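re: that chain from earlier
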Amino acid sequence: MWRDALLVAGKDLRVEARSRVATNQVLPFAVLVLVLFAFALEPDRGVLRTAAAGLFWVAVLLATVLAVSRSAALESGDGGRDALRLSGLDPAGVFLGKAGAVAVQLVALELVLGVGVVVLYDLEPAGLGTLAVTALVATLGLAAAGTLYGALASGLRVRETLLPLLLLPVVAPVLLAATRASEAALGTGVVGIDAGEWVGLLAAFAVVYLAAGVIAFGPLLEEG
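^ sequence. v structure.
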């Protein structure tokens, strides 16, 4: 399973490196979202700094939809899904590989967006260890849920519009927990918030969707 996961992740990352969709489309879109937030709230810098964590994760969630849609589309043409299904690869390994490739792209995206938040929102970085753990666990959950729902929607003609409707409500707990944990690390939220509790919620979400994907990705691949 792990060997197949590495093969699939390597394949997806090589495709992205050659096509540069992530760098030419997904990343500019996410940065543009942060810039628009800055324009909308710029008269009140205090509100902008207070809301920085939530705005950051909203931008990440919107970019996740694009990254997942791109990941699901890699095998949508020229019989790619049939070839993947008949390749003999472990479906669980395929799921973990595709989720891993999405996670790597999201981590790179979050690093750039983090710098953008510091520059645009005049925020002083603090609690870097907590922020790093929060970002890592939240990214695993987003990548796992996105890959699972991407496979669910990929066999439908309206998958481009259906995927956000399926995915965004499901990952709402990630938005909430990641925002609260980030606020606790930055000191911009309510006093007394325990970042560890919210990180634990993120970890539970990630475990649930990683397990669900390992179990359900094979049948979804067959149905698609």
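Residues 2-223 form one domain.
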